[in-house]
Each structure stands twice: as C-alpha cells, then as structure tokens.
Amino acid sequence: MKATSRVALFGGIYSNYLALEAAIQDARRRKADALYCLGDLGAFGPHPDRVFPLLAAQGVHCVQGNYDESIARELADCQCGYTDPRDNHFAQISYDYTLAKTSSHNKAYLRSLPQEIRLELGPLRLLLCHGSPRRTNEFLWESTTSTAFLTHLLHTYNADVIATTHTGLKWRRSLANNRHYVNVGVLGRPENDGRTSVWYTLLEYSPAQGLTIEFVPLVYDHQRLAREMRAEGLPEEFVATTLTGWWTTCLEVLPGKERKRGRY
Amino acid sequence: MSHSPSETPRVAISHLDDLWFQVSGTRCNLTCAHCFISCSPHNHSYGFLSLADVRTRLAESVPLGVKEYYFTGGEPFLNPQLTDILIETLNYGPATVLTNGTVLKDEWLERLAAADAASLYSLEFRVSIDGCTAEMNDPVRGAGTFARALAGVEKLVAFGFLPIITAARVWPEGDDQRVLGEFVRVLAARGYERPRLKILPTLKLGAEAQRTCGYAHDERITPQMLEDFDHRQLVCEHSRIVTDRGVHVCPILIESPESLLGSSLSAALAPFAVGHGACYTCYQYGAICANPSSAARLQE
C-alpha cells in the first residue's frame, strides 16, 4: 500500500486522449501527489493507441476495466451486456474499431493491469476498482444502489473508501463510521447533462478536514475530438454526444432516475 | 438425457442483492393463460403482505446489505397498502413494482411520483404487455387488456415515470426484433418516446403448463452444465422472495414446497438444489428477473 494525501482519480478514458492530457495538466496544477485511472482506456473515441504514451510518461497507475479485459483477450465484445439491438450495434462498431486499432504491445499492457489497487490516504484505506470490488462489469448507479449494500461492500472488502467508474456518471455517498463510496465519473464522454465538459475526481485527506471529495469539471478541445472521430469514420451518434453532452446510445442500462435526466 | 436427484447441483447464494416481495399473494384482477403461478381474482393460496410485514423484512434486510427491492404478485396494486409500502421502501433502497398496468389510480401515482422525486432511489414500474398488438396480447392476458395496459403506460408517462415494458415471449423467438420494433412504434404513438423494453421467456409452470406443455424430464440443470458457467445468471444466486408463508428461493418457484427456505431472511440463505424445469429456463436465458440496469451478463 502506498501512502499519499491527495490523489487524482480518472474514470474511463474511452480513447479521449485530449481530455486525458487536459486532466493530467489540471491535476498536476492542483498538486495531486499521484494519478490513477480506474479502467476502460479504449472505446468510443479515436486513435486508442494515443492514450498509452501519456499514461506511461506521467506515471498514471491503471486498473483493468471490462473493455480493457476484452481488448487484451481479443474477445468478441466489450462485456457491457447490452440487450437492446441498437445499443449493441453501436457498441460493436466502437469495439471492433478499438480492437483493430490497439497495438499488440498495448494489448499486452492492458493484460498486465490489476483488477484493483489499494492505497492509503492518510489513515483511510482506499480501494480503486472499475465496476465494483466484486465484479469488473457491475454497474453501481446512484439510484439503484442502497446504502446498506455499499456498507456491505466496504466491510467485505476491508476499505474505508471505494472508488469506481464504469457507469459514466459521477456520484458519491458518505456512510457511517467515516466511510465513503465515490464514482469518479469518466474522461471519455460528457455525462448526459447537455454540457461538453467531462469530469475527474480529487480525493484529499487532511487531519483537520478528514476526507474531501472534489468533482472537477474539465473543459478540453471537444471540437477537435469530434473532427477526429468523424475522420476515423466513427458513428455520428457518438460525435453528437461529444458535441452536445447528451448520450445517444447505450441508454438501456440507465435506471429510471438517471435516464430521466438525459434527453434521449 | 435424464439424471438422478443425487446429481442435482446446489447453488449457493453469493450475496442477497435482490429482495422480492409477493406483495399481493396470488391475487390478480386478470387470469393470464401463461401465468406460472396461476394467479386470478379467486386464487387465495398466498395472501397479501401488510405494510407491517414489509417493514419487518426491510429492517431485517439492512444488516444483510440488500441492494434492491422488487414487488410482484398477482397484481401488486390490488394490495390496498401498496402505495405506502413502496414509499416506505424508498427510504431503504430502489424499488421496482411489476404491474399489469390496468388498475392504476391517479391518486396513487401522484403520491408515488412525489416519493420518487424526493428519494435518492429509483422507483421503477415494469408493465407486463405480452405482444405488440391486441391480437398477440389479448388471447394470453384477456380481452381488452392490451388497450387497458397501454392506457396505464400513458398514465405512468404522464406522471413522469419511464416504465419498463416487460413482454413474455408468446411469439417465436426469431420474431423478437420485429416485435420489439413494433412495440417501439406503438408506444411512441401513445406518447412514450423512449420506451424501455424487456423480453422474458415463458415459464412452463402453472397455467402456462396447461397452455403449452410442462417441462420435459430432461429439461434440468446438470452438474456439468454449471461448470464454467457464471452462476450469477441464476436468480437463486443473489435473490430471495418473501411471501405470507416465509422466505422462498425465488419468485418463480413459490408453489414448490422445497422453495420455502426459512422464516427469516438469514435463515433462508442456504444453498438450493436447482432441480426444477424452471431452473433450466433460468439457466438458458439468464438474469430473467432483474431490471436491465442490474442484469448480470454471461461471461465469455
């Protein structure tokens, strides 16, 4: 376990290397001691191989997401588990593109990633994983995850703070005995709120204030990303999400409350 | 190939994620031809759960870390305390109610919409409509039920809900995409522009066993079938259901005597022998009872 006091946590990058660059700069400017990514390096965006050198150069430690595992093992799909044919259609286009455009060297790197990282934040035991500590592709949505269940996870997995991504939507909940759950959001695409910014999360521990969880909005060159997505022949539906901030695909897994907040 | 009972595999519960309530017992205003527990206006074999009953179970569920709560019947809204039960549940976690959509009253939905808006958690409605036309649905669910259920969907949408339309596959499996497409068109015409749809396999139990056929002797899970199989696909791996008799293994099998596992939630967490034909359907299709937001998927 590594001891630190201020960490930046990046959620799914989804090949959005432009947002990753902006996030790294922003986190360094805010004096983060260490940078972590909670998995799903590829998907959705263009040029998946451009993410890897940035991670290596900046020493960003990563856990393996379901997408990473699929790409690493060259599986047939991303393991998101959609049943809606339209969702599957677009998810497959994205997956096939990412699989074809990820080098074997980078696939080997994805294969090497751990499923969880544990560190100490002051006296707090922090557990970083992708979907949930028990399953990489489990969706923990704010409106369908009871406090009792989160308490169970923290107890079972011996943590004071669990941080995940996977759903694409940031949220947090404070629990009894100074325990916390946080979904750090994603860098890869906006979070279905009509804004083009993406989000990452800063965690800080100080003896005076205890744990501080800060969600950081990140403005990046989304117009350039959209141009590159088009140039690579990625679906207009994805480009529209980058440019408008509204999700257009993969909506079936959203619970009612989260779905109602979006446009589609 | 058949196998002896000694070969019936047992499935352990990994964690009690989903707690179900047979909240209206076996009472329903409809008498669907495919109902796997033969619910009807006159089937009193299981009774209503009271608000007090549900409160007791909710309190019991907290130390067990239950993630989501589901309410089924029969028709849950025949239980006069259902609105209060759902509102109470939203203090504990997400609640999903499985309804036929034909008896919904504005005053209930008004209260529920307010409770949903005030809660951290989602209140989900799953409305059963078994086909995208009256010609498909009504022979199974009863004359006029297609129109009545669609009116229920309209009402739910008017109150701000996004109901999940749940259809038992009473058509050939190869027609799924056509039926889903037609559902989308029909629902959009009624003002539901972003419908959520879930197809369920039929279960050859109860009335459905009479309508079509029961399970063949060899439609059973064998130990070999569970090798390298993601057990989370099986409802009994992460769920239990409360009836007025106690705690049972899953919502499908409540009429089987061995499904009753105990009088308390913690006493009902023993492994279950998946020796029923319906277990085979659960195995074949996977995650048949969960909402799409929570459904596990088959691992590669």
Low-confidence spans of chain A: pLDDT under 50, at least 5 residues? none
Quaternary state reads heterodimer
Residue share in helix of chain A = 25-40%
Number of domains of chain B: 1
- CATH superfamily grouping of chain A: Metallo-dependent phosphatases
Low-pLDDT segments, ≥5 res of chain B: none
User: Overall 3D geometry of chain B?
Assistant: globular
Report strand % of chain B: 15-25%
Number of helices of chain A: 9
Which key phrases capture this entry?
heterodimer, A: 264 residues, alpha/beta, Purple Acid Phosphatase, chain A, domain 2, 9 helices, 22% strand, B: 300 residues, two-stranded antiparallel sheet, 8 helices, 15% strand, globular
Helices, strands, pairings?
The complex is a heterodimer of chains A (about 260) and B (about 300).
Chain A: E1 2-4, E2 6-10, H1 17-29, E3 34-37, H2 51-58, E4 61-62, H3 66-73, H4 85-101, H5 104-112, E5 116-121, E6 124-129, H6 147-156, E7 161-164, E8 171-175, E9 179-183, E10 198-206, E11 210-218, H7 222-231, H8 236-244, H9 256-261
Parallel strand pairs in A: 1-5, 2-3, 3-4, 6-7, 7-9
Antiparallel strand pairs in A: 2-10, 5-6, 8-9, 10-11
Chain B: E1 10-11, E2 18-22, H1 51-61, E3 68-72, H2 82-89, E4 95-99, H3 106-118, E5 123-128, H4 134-141, H5 145-158, E6 164-168, H6 176-189, E7 196-200, H7 206-211, E8 239-243, E9 246-248, E10 260-262, E11 272-273, H8 277-285
Helix pairs in contact in B: 1-2
Describe it for me?
The complex is a heterodimer of chains A (264) and B (300). Chain A is of the alpha/beta class and 264 residues long. Chain A has a single domain, classed as 4-Layer Sandwich (Purple Acid Phosphatase, chain A, domain 2). Helix content of chain A is 34%, strand content 22%. Chain A has 9 helices and 11 strands. Chain A has a 6-stranded mixed β-sheet with strand order 1-5-6-7-9-8, with helices on one face. A 5-stranded mixed β-sheet of chain A has the order 4-3-2-10-11. In chain A, β5 and β6 form a beta hairpin. In chain A, α7 packs antiparallel against α8. Chain B has a 9-stranded mixed β-sheet, covered by helices on one side. In chain B, α1 packs parallel to α2. The longest helix of chain B is centred in the middle third of the chain and has 14 residues. Chain B is globular, with a radius of gyration of 18 Å. The interface between A and B is large, with 38 and 38 residues.
